[in-house]
Amino acid sequence: MKRREFLANAGASLLAPAAFRGLPPSAPASLSRPNVLLILTDDQRFDTVGALGNPVLRTPNMDRLVRSGVAFTRAHIMGAMNGAVCIPSRAMLLTGRTLFHLEKLGQSIPVSDVMLPELLKKAGYRTHGIGKWHNGKESYARAFGSGGPVMFGGMSDHTKVPFQDFDPTGEYPDGRQKTGAKFSSEMFSDAAVAFLEGYGGTAPFFLYLAYTAPHDPRMAPPEFARLYDPGKIELPGNFLPRHPFDNGEMEIRDEKLTVVPRDPASIRKEIAGYYAMITHVDREIGRVLDALEKTGRAGSTIIVFAGDNGLAVGQHGLLGKQSLYDHSVRVPLIISGPGIPKGRKAGTFCYLLDVYPTLCRMLGIEAPSTADGTSLVPALRDSSATVRDELFLAYTKLQRGLKTSDNWKLIRYMVNGIETVQLFNLNIDPLEIRNLAARPEEVGRVASMTAELKARMKEAGDFCDLDKPHWN
Prior knowledge:
This protein is of the alpha/beta class. It has two domains: 2-388, Alkaline Phosphatase, subunit A (3-Layer(aba) Sandwich); 392-471, Arylsulfatase, C-terminal domain (2-Layer Sandwich), CATH 3.30.1120. Helices cover 28% and strands 18% of the residues. The protein contains twelve helices and 18 strands. The strands form four sheets. Strands 6-5-9-1-10-12-2-13 form an eight-stranded mixed beta sheet, with helices on both faces. Strands 4-15-16-17-18 form a five-stranded mixed beta sheet. Strand 16 (399-403) and strand 17 (408-415) form a beta hairpin. Helix 6 packs parallel to helix 8 (264-294). The radius of gyration is 21 Å and the shape is globular. The two termini are 33 Å apart. Residues 1-14 and 17-28 have low confidence and may be disordered.
């Protein structure tokens, strides 16, 4: 840990351009600290960016971010304790807390957990929040000094978004709720562009822009839907008509969006709709990036782009994100800005919650002791650097997982008293198709990885115990 702390500090000084170097944590934010633009999409999987290896998807503006910064190609969420995975995912990002350190599943954030925008506001930043906020009205009021439109909830018809204008009292009564007249991504981008073009303050800003796309319902505007013909969409290599066993979430809402067994034609339609919404939100992100350049702030703004969780959309016979397969726990994460290398890919394991201490290092602001994450600055400085050696993953009391540095993955399930074990060699099986857990030659690996998983569970404060019946 001491070596990591040294690298993080060294990395911060090397990354920051001259105007941002040497600021003590107590220095006023107006003394040349950069702006921060944090862009978050909803349900966007790790492999849905053209420049990161998807030849079908059209994402020119996400590609633009890849070219201008560092893409973390093995970024993950830690998991969730409920089916609405985006709630704890966003709470972990905002607080730097790990999954089992969240209160109330992340639906609200206690005053003791200082959120990133809250910390920056105290350091002199203008904090402005736009879009989806799924972590409580009181938390939003603490975090932002201005903002709106804000959607307090999880999902909606994208053409009829329920939202509230910014309320300086922080009350946000239901009676003041309005309904959006534009597609969600356009409405939120309009607000972000207006903020950037109208902001004349001397303090740097933190702009939190959280889209609700590409979350279902999959209803991209027609000109974007026409870009992806379902008849020409290839099924994923791990497509299955149904999941091979009960993972504990076979009847959740997400899994009922199409018929079971999965029909190839319906899955192609789902994928085409998913891709269309990603291309549409990409266009809207481009408008915000253009406004940043037009106002002359592109060179003094750190941009963080990420998805809040992945989505199966037909892989393993699943549609949703309530699993520990890579399609559900891996997300895009790109960081660009002043002093950050361009066009690099960092392969270290990391969590979204690591963004919090990373930005603190880059801004010269001391992270609170409650932030559990690890700074990614060493990997920004050297894309071959390892920040995390392994990853612990969890979903409710049903699933636990471990990924190791040599790219093996163990998932254990406990559903209705039945324990199921999966072991994947991701080096040769990245789609997680071949379960090796029952092979005699892998008995030792399953045992050693299970022991390591138990240790990580204990370290994380997990309430499950793999040694007890039903993991009680």
